[in-house]
Amino acid sequence: MASKSNGRFKWLRSPSAAFHLVVLLLLSFFTWKFSSKYISLDSIPWPVIVVLTAAVANSITLYTKLSETKKNAAEDLSRTELRHFNQIVERKRSSTLIVMILQILVVLGVILISMAGKQELISDHIKTLTNIVVSAIACSLYSAIPMLLGIKEVFDFEAVIKNRKKIIKRQSETLKKLAKK
Asked: Which end of the chain has fewer CB atoms < 10 Å from its terminal CB, N or C?
């Protein structure tokens, strides 16, 4: 978001989407290799589902926090900053929504494959499905990291806006006091 340095606002950047894509691809590859050797889905892994649900909760938190921030920060930004800020928020909201949907699909996939694991059609392909599920779980858990960074970024931006508002208020009070003298 923004931080004040030498009187100018500079926009801080979190890791790019390309970086996260490369990490997700590498993570998928290594978890596929690991799960093909060591993991088999025979029953519903409830602890894993709970952890995945926590990742979904992070996405929901970021999505709602972005909506609140957009509403709260609108009055304290200049027109140019507001336009730039709205673009950033909308991009983050849409990516958060996509990640949230994917995380929910992973949870549902884990449950369905675990429940259907005894079926003959599924049992023929259980190793491949297990590899897919474990890779999807790892990617879903990794996606919680950008969500947490996004929440931190929103909080930092709100702090900058509040701090700037306090500084402007103090400056105007000081100017009023000087004008009276």
From this structure: C
